[in-house]
Amino acid sequence: MQQFIRLSLILVCLSLPRFASAQGLMDGFMKGDRKASLAVTYSQETFDTYYRGTTPFRDPNLGTVTTQALNLYGVYGLGYDLDLIVTAPYIRTEASAGYQPKQEGFQDVTAALRWEAFDYKLGKARLSWLFALGYTMPIQNYVNDNMLALGQGSKNIDGRTMLHFKSGSFFLTGQFGYIRRGPVTLDRIVNVYDPSQVNPNSGMKVNVPDVTEAIIRTGFATKRVYIDVWGQQQTPYAVGTDIGPGIPFPTNAIGFQRVGGTLFLRLVGRLGLNFGYSTTLDGQNIGKSTRLSGGIIIGN
Amino acid sequence: MNNRIYSFLGNLLILTGVVVGMTGCSKTIDESQPVAYLPTNLDETAGNWKTYVLTSPTDVTLAAPAATNSTTYQAELSDLKTQSKTLTTEQQQAVTYWGAGAVYRWNEIARELSARYNLPPASTADGKYPVPDAANPLADPRFPFANPPYTARALAYLSVAQYDALVATWYYKKQYNRAAPSTVDSGIKPALPVAAMSSYPSEDAVVAMASYTVLKAMFPGEVPYLDAKLAEHQNSRLWAGMNVASDVSAGTSLGSQVAAKVMARAKTDGMSTSNNQSVTGGMIKDVQTRGLSEVWVSQESPARPPMLPNYGVVKTWNFDQATMVKIRPDAPPAIGSPEFTKALDELKTIQRTQTREQARVANYWADGVGSYTPPGHWHRTAANAAHDARYSEVRMARTLALVGTALMDAAICCWDTKYYYYYPRPQQFGLKTSVGLPNFPAYTSGHSTFSGAAAVVLSGIFPDQADDFMAKANEASVSRMYGLIHYRFDCEVGMACGKKIGSFATARGKADGSGL
């Protein structure tokens, strides 16, 4: 059961199109030695308002942007205190108005190690301290410098730490992460020298601002049902640009504040279903999006 | 238990290393910067080259300089010694920056301003698009909207002013022949290579003032920015020990006089009527009379008035209005004709099967909103080629004036053609585009016309690179098909017309007395 729970928590996370985003790479539940599972999740995320800088904006030449993602997610316990997590989303994103063609294809593959470094018993409760390290790279050389894009195209290193508290069916997890994003090469030569840009230059290579991320999640996990609510704050760490004419999209400073919830139901044996919902409260250079997801989990 | 500890320590070590690596490594992106050089040829007879607006260098005047043994000059020398002896980091950076080339840098500045001002006005709540106001350039929308025709014109006048001013400079340099400060006094240690020619007037000061005057008129909201650039450029010549103060002030006077004459042409070249929207009704009626079944309509929401529908009346550089009408391309295929259907089907196929390489080409040449447009792109190509060839300031200016006037002629000719035929974009027949949809008729392709013209001129100047320039032009042209906003005939006919336009500039270059 716990394996299902872990997955149900994680798999709503990992697709990251331009205006979609995840609620963090992982949760605080460890997989267990030599145990594995696979999940397939479908999600749909829409927005008709996006933030130019931090100002909400509606573009009649864009309309409503809808991003659908099919996400494959696998986790394997390399040891009782070390998990390997791999994920790869396939994405389609399109606008209801204007002349932008839809973008579709594989986005980024992520591999991450999660390590439970400390495990304290506090009476009947347990507190664990975890560290995780992930690496993300584009599966294909998709166009990244556009309003509608599959992703930012950068190679990222994601480092984070988590405190996970569990008492009976109640749990509370807090985590903090830093995502280091590598530079990307555009299809074009940047024409505008913007002093506020991450790395003003006249070439095709530009920096992508790093971000920090904080997530708090709490809920109840029983044998058959799991339910949680969470809040996530992503904040640009370095100076970046705002969405604007001629400004490369990858150099934009992206941040957001989201809340959401997850429901997992165990069906039979090793099969479970999960559902997720999230909405954006505030943002910076990102869509004010609402997301619904559903998936099947198979595994031990 | 020991295993647990070792595993823990090992994992901790790896994580620590990665975290240090993540936060420690720099995100600096290094790029090679253009540097100063001694020209391969000083072009000492350039004072006799044919100018564009001046009838002769003596249209402008320059007083004779003080002799190098005069007390006035000696005082200037001593001041120069002080100024150039020790430099702050900022001063050193300014010397290096401007040392790359006066014409080169001001062209770069003009491109940057063009990109910054290439912003179509946003619509108001009542669905209207306010027109930028030259008298109030920083109000919303800012003036100018530096679209391709505007940018082509701004860069053309800049290059012509620089060229005419430098021809006059070379004329007076020869006449007055005052040696460079470091030649007069070996105590002056110049920071840049010194050419063996007269330093009166300072060619840098000439270019600075001529460029400043043109750009101040073209980008009136940028006066403080341009003031600072002008002052820094002038001062950098003193900091570098390259010119005494009177070299600079003479150059400033000369540059100012020439630019005033060039801007007098600009004021009466017809640009003020280029956005006259009242002409479109007649244009549409005319083209419908000639048989066009579906005219171009803005696809933006709300519909935006077309870009500069009357730009075709602007005065050309290298041929007259009658010639322009003569080289205007023939009519495009009728909507629904087999030729039209074939061209539209070709775009539908590209939309269905577009490769990543086709997308890259479309994006590389898009040069859309927020960019310095195709004319700026070709100015960059020309300036870099001339810099690589270590051209003198006057030959660099000649190159950019030939390319720049050809590009403005291309803009005028192409815009005349676009509004003469008022032909719909493929988006009126259901195609998408990711490169930005230009808000004016399709036929002929502006990119193709600009690129054909510039590539022909550059191939004449740098024959050994002709294949490369033509390949670039062809790629720019076909990029508009990959971007799905032009039919093949828009591109091919535009390219052919552009080449004709370029050949007029090439012919002028052959006859300008440079022997180049």
Automatic annotation (TrEMBL), chain A:
Organism of derivation: Spirosoma oryzae
Source lineage: Bacteria, Pseudomonadati, Bacteroidota, Cytophagia, Cytophagales
UniProt signal peptide: 1-22
Name of the protein described by the UniProt record: Outer membrane beta-barrel porin/alpha-amylase
Record keywords: Signal
Domain of life: Bacteria
UniProtKB/TrEMBL annotation, chain B:
Domain Phosphatidic acid phosphatase type 2/haloperoxidase: from-to ranges: 403-498
InterPro entries: Br/Cl_peroxidase_C, PAP2/HPO, PAP2/HPO_sf, V-haloperoxidase
Single GO term (MF): peroxidase activity
PROSITE patterns cross-referenced by the UniProt entry: PROKAR_LIPOPROTEIN
Superkingdom of this protein's organism: Bacteria
Gene3D superfamilies: Vanadium-containing Chloroperoxidase, domain 2
Full protein name: PAP2 superfamily protein
